[in-house]
Write a structure and sequence with these properties.
Layout (H helix, E strand, L loop, with lengths): L1 H15 L11 H7 L3 H22 L6 H28 L1
Helix pairs in contact: 1-4, 2-3, 3-4
């Protein structure tokens, strides 16, 4: 749900900036499905979430548009929370 919400947010922000969002997707989903084992797949997914966190942390100080900054700040919080939840779940799985 969070990823769908963040995708919708990104589409709205792109439109806010007079752009047109694309429906193209990368190969991350297929790569994630190829990872065997629940803990291993969670670790893989969490590396992707961590990449998003780092990218947003680096970008936010340079973003001056208030709507974009607020939206991406929210997206950062969502990803930070999900990283922590996934870390706890991986630890519980062993």
């Amino acid at each position: 749900r969070d990823e769908a919400r963040c995708c919708g947010l990104l589409a709205r922000l792109i439109r806010h900036l007079n752009g047109e969002p694309s429906h193209a997707t990368g190969d991350f989903h297929a790569k994630a499905l190829a990872v065997q084992g629940a803990a291993e797949r969670l670790r893989f997914l969490n590396r992707g979430q961590g990449w998003v966190v780092r990218t947003l942390q680096e970008a936010l100080p340079r973003i001056r548009d208030e709507a974009v900054h607020a939206g991406l700040t929210d997206m950062l919080a969502v990803h930070e929370r999900n990283v922590a939840l996934a870390d706890a779940l991986v630890a519980a799985l062993g």
